[in-house]
Design a protein that fits this description.
Strand order of the largest sheet: 1-5-6-10-9-8-7
Radius of gyration: 42 Å
Structural class: alpha+beta
Strand content: 15-25%
Number of domains: 2
Shape: rod-shaped
Number of strands: 10
């Protein structure tokens, strides 16, 4: 029987060496060391052997069983290492490369996108983009724009003033980007074609107004510029923003720094200017009138030119127009956003719609 145990040892060692996978190795283990294996049966039947055979058979059998267990364990470890090496070679990752697909680091805010769209359109029309200070002197914000001290129009733009020495000119957060009209004309002679996008501040806060908002101011000054040029400019700009089928209309209004002054509307792009949707219901965007109010404009008041006459802006020889509107207003219309405050809440559920 000892001879048979030694034969089983040789057979099992050869089978272990020949196993190429964990599944094959498990099959070898069950065949030679399992509960129904020949070697296991021999060890269980030692008590039935003659006394003189029990020692040699038990000693040899246990030695062979432990040896095979160690051999199989070593083989398992070798197979695992081989599989790992193969996996690393086949699935090698270059950690210096970006993820696949690379995750976007972010995107422009919808207000920034709208501002850049307006800038691109106006640059295409020959205008230059300028910027001005957000903390402004009362002179540029009101006085030089034909808002003399005590003028009722100042009350309509009640704003945030900065505490200064009583002997220093009043300073405030600008209520519009219009102060750059005077600053630009002071620094450059006519002709002048420019827009001024930027932040402005007023003491307003509701679904369509914010204490801080973005505005675009436009100014064109030269010889022979008329109200027709203003209408053509606004029409070209709004068709680029809202589509080639848009129309505009002007309504008489009052602004201290333009004369005559108008408010301008664009034909509704949802109902096509009809005021009604395809199902016959009233258009909710334009409230059934077919027009959407956008901003104010007009011909530059000669009194404004009077403040910069020394820079070449003689009101008897040059004319010009100005216009202004809120960037949030354009963004709200473009994206059908009902509450301006959503642009400033930093709610990713809202902002990620524009990624």
């Amino acid at each position: 029987m000892v001879e048979r145990i030694e034969e089983i040892e040789v057979e099992a060692q050869a089978a272990v060496e020949a196993a190429d996978s964990a599944a094959e190795l498990e099959e070898v283990r069950v065949r030679y060391l399992g509960r129904k294996a020949e070697l296991t049966g021999m060890l269980r039947g030692i008590a039935d052997l003659p006394p003189e055979q029990r020692g040699p058979v038990g000693s040899t059998g246990n030695k062979v069983r432990k040896g095979l267990e160690g051999l199989i364990e070593a083989k398992v470890e070798a197979l695992r290492n081989a599989e790992l090496e193969q996996s690393l070679a086949g699935d090698r990752i270059d950690v210096t490369l970006p993820g696949s697909p690379a995750r976007a680091v972010g995107h422009l805010h919808p207000i920034t996108r709208t501002r850049r769209l307006i800038e691109d359109v106006m640059i295409g029309l020959g205008y230059q983009v300028m910027e001005g200070p957000e903390v402004e002197h009362d002179y540029y914000n009101f006085t030089a724009l034909n808002h003399p001290e005590g003028h009722p129009a100042r009350m309509l733009q009640d704003t945030f003033y900065v505490d200064t020495d009583e002997h220093v000119e009043q300073v405030l957060l600008r209520t519009h980007t219009s102060p750059m009209q005077v600053r630009a004309m002071e620094s450059a002679p006519p002709p002048l074609f420019m827009i001024v996008p930027g932040k402005t501040y007023r003491r307003d806060s509701d679904a369509t107004h914010s204490p801080m908002f973005h505005q675009v101011e436009g100014l064109a000054v030269g010889e022979g510029i008329t109200l027709a040029d203003l209408k053509g400019t606004l029409l070209a700009m709004l068709r680029e923003i809202f589509g080639p089928d848009r129309e505009i209309r002007m309504r008489p209004h009052f602004f201290p720094f333009t004369e005559p002054s108008v408010e301008f509307d664009v034909s509704c792009f949802r109902c096509g200017g009809s005021g009604s949707l395809e199902d016959g219901s009233r258009c909710g965007l334009c409230k059934g009138i077919g027009w959407i109010e956008l901003g104010g404009a007009g011909m530059v008041d000669p009194n404004v030119f009077g403040f910069v006459a020394d820079s070449g802006y003689d009101p008897d020889s040059v004319t010009g127009f100005a216009f202004g509107f809120g960037i949030e207003r354009i963004a709200m219309l473009q994206h059908n956003v009902g509450d301006l405050r959503l642009f400033f809440d930093n709610d990713l559920r809202m902002l990620e719609q524009f990624s």
